[in-house]
Amino acid sequence: MYNLFMTLLIIVSILIVIVTMMQPQKQQDALNALSGGAVFSGQTKKRGFEAFMEKVTAILLVLFFAFAIVLAYLSSK
């Protein structure tokens, strides 16, 4: 059982790295960031690919922490 969760944790870890690298970058000019334009960029609703990748990342992070907690419990026995 321990080996199964360890394997799943490693797979999820690799997927988190891949999904994080696939997310689109936020391109902001230095002038835009200094002038306060960065304040409004977080208020727009994400759509399409960006929203999908954000949801996948959140799901993978929840799985990662769940598997880590299960592994900590199994290793304490």
Architecture overview:
There is one protein chain. The protein has 77 residues and is mostly helical. It has a domain at 1-21 and 48-76. The protein is built from 4 helices and no strands.
Number of strands: 0
Shape descriptor reads elongated
Helical residues, percent:
over 70%
Task: Please state roughly what percent of the residues sit in beta strands, choosing from under 5%, 5-15%, 15-25%, 25-35%, 35-45% or over 45%.
Answer: under 5%
Order of helices and strands: HHHH
* Cα-to-Cα separation, first versus last residue: 12 Å
Largest sheet: none
Structural class of the secondary structure composition? mainly alpha
SSE diagram, text form:
Elements: H1 2-22, H2 30-34, H3 37-41, H4 49-76
Which characteristics define this entry?
77 residues; mainly alpha; transport; Protein-export membrane protein SecG; 4 helices; single chain
